[in-house]
Amino acid sequence: MTPSHFSSATCALLLFGLGATTAPAADLANGEALHQRKCTGCHDHRQYTRPNRIVHTFEDLHARVKFCDGAANAGFSADDIDDVVAYLNARYYKFIAPAE
Ligand code: HEC
Questions:
Q1: Prediction pTM value
Q2: Which pLDDT tens digit goes with each residue over 7-22?
Q3: How far does residue 25's CA lie from ligand 1's centre (Å)?
Q4: Domain residue spans in the chain?
């Protein structure tokens, strides 16, 4: 095992173990409401579960929500983006167990 491989595996384990990968204050209900209001104009949830989806990691998801926030002109705050990311993760992508 190479050192870099070891450290990223350790990091992933720590993140899972601590349940600290979503912001502790992430508000899934707020994320759902914001998504409903601002994010269903161009695509619906099928985009998130299609076989050739473009988001493959939690980081991808965060980056994509930020990008689409700009595309949607939604004006989400950083907290809003975290909430929408947490909602989409919990409901569709399931990269990380939600911190409850
Ligand atoms: C202006 C149109 C538009 C709006 C509004 C929009 N999106 Fe998107 N979004 C897109 C397009 C286009 C794609 C697909 C890009 C592709 O297939 O290459 C996409 C893809 C995505 C994906 C990735 C789906 C996958 O393949 O895994 C996510 C996540 C996403 N959008 C989230 C959001 C969120 C959150 C909002 C609300 C802030 C939003 N989108 C609003 C245009 C939009």
A1: 0.81
A2: 444 444 444 444 445 4
A3: 24
A4: 3-93
